[in-house]
Amino acid sequence: MDFYRFKRRHPQLVMVLLLYVAVPLAMGLALGYEMHGDAPTEIPTVIVDADNSEFSREFISQVDKTTTFNVTSRAESAAAAEQLIQSGQAMAGVIIPQDFAKDMKNGSSPDMLILYDASQLVTLSAAKPAMTEIMMTMNGAYLQQIFAGKLGVMPAELAGNVLPVNVVYRNLYNPVKSFRYYLLPGMLLAVLQVGIVMLGAERGFDNKKERKFSVHLLNLVLWGLLGMLGVMVCLGVQFAFGLPYRGTVAGGMLLLFAYSLVITTMGYIVGLLVPDKLFAVQLSSLLVLPTSVLAGYSYPLTAMPHGFQMLAKILPYAYMGPDLRALCLKPMQLKHVLPHLGILLLMAAVLLALLGVVLLLKRKLQRPAAEEAAA
Amino acid sequence: MNMIKKFSDLFMRYKPYVVLTLAPLLFVLLFGGAMSPVYNTDLPVMVYDMDASPASRQVVEQLERYPYLDLRETALSLDEVEQQFLYGNIIGAIIIPEGFGDDLHAKRGADLLVMLDSCNFMNMTSVMTATSTVGGTLNAALRLQLLEAGGQQPGVAMDNVTTLSVVDRGLYNPTYGYIYFLFPVLLAIFVQQSWLAGVSPYLIEKKAELARAPLSAKSFARIAGQMGIFLVFTVIGLMIWSLTLSGLFNYPFKGSAWLILLVHLPFVLAMAGMALVITSIFDDPVHCTQFNMFLTIPTLLSCGYAWPVYLMPEPFRAVITHIWPLYYYANPMRDIILKGCGVEQVMPYAAGCLKFAAFWLPAGIIAYAWKVRKLRRLAEV
User: Fold this and answer.
1) CATH 3.40.1710.10 boundaries in chain B
2) pLDDT tens digit sequence for B144-155
3) Which among B117, B128, B294 has CB closest to A129?
4) Mutation target among A145, A169, A314, A336 for the B interface, most CBs of B within 10 A
5) Could you give the CA distance from residue A225 to residue A222 in angstroms, rounded to a whole number?
6) Which of B85, B294, B374 sits opposite A194 (nearest CB)?
7) CA B158 to CA B146: how far, in whole Å?
């Protein structure tokens, strides 16, 4: 029997395998492989060194020495450097004006210009802090000369004079600043939730005639469990690419199940209510598609207008997406996921109650129609 | 009840056009509204002042004055700070260690520890920028005092403190706004997904009809004509979304609309090929829609927009440019919309997309025709 006939005989099984196993596996492998570099390195950088002094050469060598930048081209002017950035041949630029070192020694504070291609946020997020660090090192070296040369400060006291307050940064949970760790857990969940809600809608539509609440509930629990397993398969692939999982396993599974149940139920109710199956599936997916953005997974909630912050409070993804990433990266215990687990369970309870009301209303509406038909 | 049915029938009849033009508008409004504030403010940060000296209190006051930080109450222990991080209540913590004030007075260099939750890059960068600004201001003021105390004139001391001056310029997105960065690829995704959502059910329906009715050139021509109408609606949709973005959220469109059209048309042709391939596999529009919806995020993440192409492994780069056309659309959209690039930069993408379409459109037609034949044979059996 060929695959086509098998697909025609068991369309649902094929779709479940496709949406919960094949696609998550393929997607997990592809995206994990794509981003396994983790953080942007060797950012193509253009240099304009109109000064050509010892200082400027030292500065450029500092830039080139870091793994973040790769000096790939030199230009004659800032405009030419901008041209290279516009054409995509460079993503950062350092413009050192003529007589920069001389003016600096004279104390006339000349400006060095750093250009970033801010249409590329990933490279920007790596380039800016790296350049700031280089600037601080160079500035510190220059100030040491001032304090030692002009004020006669002793070497032991130099550090304290140059940098009275030494701000030390500690990046917790994602010290390598991996873009993959930041993005993938929640994005993979965002993909899977679309599958979960659509299969929920399909189930709801197919079970329209079912009257018993217990049968609906059993369906929801079963499909909720399947959804949870789909997410686990997808994430499991990422662990093969080195994504850590530092949080509670039991807590993570509970949270995932509650989440999957909520999403399945949302789709299920839409499937029960909407008269056209295709439209029900499309509508249900629209309910969850924007939530990865609106729930503050990548763009922080604190930056959104108040109304959107309030909206996020009723989005299930807000209690799962960021938590899934946190479970991977932070040593979270069960107590840390309990508040969000409680909210998701509450959402599930509300949706199940709504499902009960929908079933009751449908029964009431169908009764007179049936009586009319019998009469 | 009759009215609802009438409205419902009318809606179902025109649904593909609504999907192609108005459904993504909802996303434009939602995403545009959510991301319209460009700056990340009210960053929840905790302070643990272990020193409690006048100098450390001065640091806390400086931090409190910084407009983007939402300073939470002072922590009583490091464990409390850690718990707040784990509960997700804070995204940064500033630890002023014991002896901070003494070290400062003794000119030994006083350490100030900033702990960042780097799970979310955008939060991490915002807190880092805020604390480094406060730290820079503090240091500049203290250096100034030291230089003046060492006998330098205030003007000279000021020159020495600010001597290495750097001006940062974020080209094409000067405020580093996420909204500006994201929308070119979102527009591309809206075109892709609305095309698949609007066209696929139609192609599946026609496939079933072709399998039942006698084949004629007319019926194929009718499908091609309808696809042309859908194409026109994608242009109308793109115009509506762009005008909304620009009018409502002041989104700047730097490049020419004609250039957008130059990459839009080959992309839709390529997507027509992909739609034909997909609909030759699926017979049920529901299953086809489920599969199509799955494509949104993976294609977005692998098109070279969020994760630049130069960072991808070479084999992956080769594969994505040959099996899905979004690379040829999303990247030039950024170049046109944000960078205001000209035709010479956009042309290679348009040409690449045409080459892509030159392979996949005939491949799609062959696959679709093959499936029609197969369905006809099955019906005969």
Assistant:
1) 43-161
2) 888 888 888 888
3) B128
4) A169
5) 5
6) B294
7) 11
Q: Do B27 and A290 touch (CB under 8 A)?
A: yes
Distance CA(A63)–CA(A47), nearest Å, equals 10
Task: Compute the distance between CA of residue A266 and CA of residue A317 in angstroms, rounded to an integer.
Answer: 13
Record: fold of B43-161: abc type-2 transporter like fold (3.40.1710)
Name chain B contacts of A82, Cβ cutoff 8 Å: 171
Within the 215-274 window of chain A, which residues sit less than 8 Å (CB to CB) from chain B? Answer: none
Supply the angle between the helices A249-273 and A334-374 in degrees, to the nearest 10.
20
Residues in B touching A8 (Cβ below 8 Å): 283
Q: Domain spanning A45-162: which CATH class is it, in words?
A: alpha beta
Closest CA to A337 of A267, A257, A227: A257
Average of per-residue pLDDT values in chain A: 91
> Under a CB-based contact definition with an 8 Å cutoff, are residues B168 and B252 in contact?
no
DSSP secondary structure letters along A54-107: HHHHHHHHHHHHSSSEEEEEE-SSHHHHHHHHHTTS-SEEEEE-TTHHHHHHTT
B163 has pLDDT over 70: no
Longest dimension (CA), chain A: 109
Of A21, A34, A134, A270, which to mutate for an interface test with B (greatest number of B Cβ within 10 Å)?
A34
Q: How far is B99 from chain A (nearest CA, A)?
A: 12
- CA gap B12, B325 in Å, rounded: 29
Gap from B278 CA to chain A (nearest CA, Å): 14
H helix runs in chain B, sequence order:
2-21, 23-34, 54-65, 78-86, 100-105, 121-149, 154-161, 178-212, 217-249, 257-281, 285-294, 296-301, 314-323, 327-337, 343-380
With contact defined as beta carbons under 8 Å apart, do A56 and A94 qualify?
A: no
Instruction: Quote the CA–CA distance of B279 and B287 in Å, as a whole number.
Output: 10
Q: Judge contact between B137 and A315, C-beta under 8 A.
A: no
Q: CB B112 to CB A129 under 8 A?
A: no
Query: And the tokens for A222?
Result: 């079963």
**Residue entry with tokens 């081209």:** A73
What is the predicted ipTM? 0.91
Please state, in angstroms and rounded to a whole number, the distance separating the CA atoms of residues B166 and A97.
Answer: 11
A79 touches chain B (CB under 8 A): no
- Chain length of chain A: 375
Compute the half-sphere exposure of residue B209: CA atoms within 13 Å on the CB side of its CA.
Answer: 11
Give tens-digit pLDDT for B229-260: 999 999 999 999 999 999 999 999 999 999 99
Domain ranges of chain A: 3-35+178-374, 45-162
Q: Mind giving me the DSSP string for A12-56?
A: HHHHHHIIIIIHHHHHHHHHHHHTTT-S--SEEEEEEESS-SHHH
Query: How far, CA to CA in Å, does A289 sit from each of A10, A91, B218, B325?
Result: 28, 31, 39, 21
Q: Say if A36 is an interface residue toward chain B (CB within 8 Å).
A: yes
pLDDT at residue B162 tops 90: no
Q: Using the predicted structure, report yes or no on whether residue A360 has a pLDDT greater than 90.
A: yes
B146·A164 Cβ contact <8 A: yes
**Whether the Cβ atoms of residue B338 and residue B183 lie closer than 8 Å to each other:** no
CB contact under 8 A, A173 and B119: yes
- Token pair listed for B277: 């391939």
Residues of chain B contacting residue A122, judged by C-beta atoms under 8 Å apart: 306-308, 311
